[in-house]
Design brief:
3-stranded parallel β-sheet, 188 residues, mainly alpha, 12 helices, globular, 47% helix
């Protein structure tokens, strides 16, 4: 965990921790881990994940699930009953966050809406909030998970702090559902 925290604090990626453990080709381990743990499972979801898609749809929103994940996560999520209007993972897109091209591809997967009509929700300031805002989307920071915990603790690269846009911040998907309108009432 210390290696993971160090990677996060430096603005790195989770796989940087593997290098610290002497594992150079972490991607080669994905099938082994998936076989050992039966892929992505129900207990891998946050408790409020199942409710957020129907709750947002009831409020008139379309929902996309697009993130830095192996291509297998899309079918795994569908098998768990997560049916978003659009779903794609970075391995499928051929580009990963925070690359600006990821956000261009995400918009394409969503049907090319005006970026200002998209609320992009993510747990990382560096990978999600700043680049989504730079792409013209309405960024929402969800403060949970290891990156959010580290970044919320104040151990944030000062350069990132200077680039942090004013954005709604939520602590759960339930709170997001109740406050999503704030993303659209904020000025870009």
């Amino acid at each position: 965990m210390a290696l993971l925290e160090a990677a996060i604090a430096r603005g790195g990626e989770h796989h940087d921790a593997f290098v610290g453990l002497g594992v150079r080709d972490w991607r080669a381990l994905i099938p082994i881990v998936d076989a050992a743990f039966a892929g992505f499972r129900d207990e891998d979801l946050y408790p409020d994940a199942r409710q957020v898609v129907p709750a947002l749809r009831e409020r008139g929103y379309r929902v996309a699930v697009i993130g830095n994940q192996p291509a297998s996560r899309g079918p795994d999520l569908r098998a768990l009953g997560i049916e978003a209007d659009a779903m794609a993972m970075s391995d499928e897109l051929g580009v990963a966050k925070p690359d600006p091209a990821f956000f261009v591809r995400a918009l394409e997967v969503m049907g090319s809406p005006d970026p200002a009509d998209v609320a992009y929700v993510g747990d990382r300031i560096d990978n999600d909030v700043i680049p989504a805002a730079a792409a013209g989307m309405r960024a929402v920071w969800i403060r949970r998970g290891p990156w959010a915990a580290i970044q919320a603790s104040g151990r944030l690269d000062p350069e990132l702090s200077d680039r942090l846009p004013a954005t709604p911040t939520v602590d759960s998907l339930t709170e997001l559902t109740n406050r999503i309108g704030e993303a659209f009432s904020a000025r870009l």
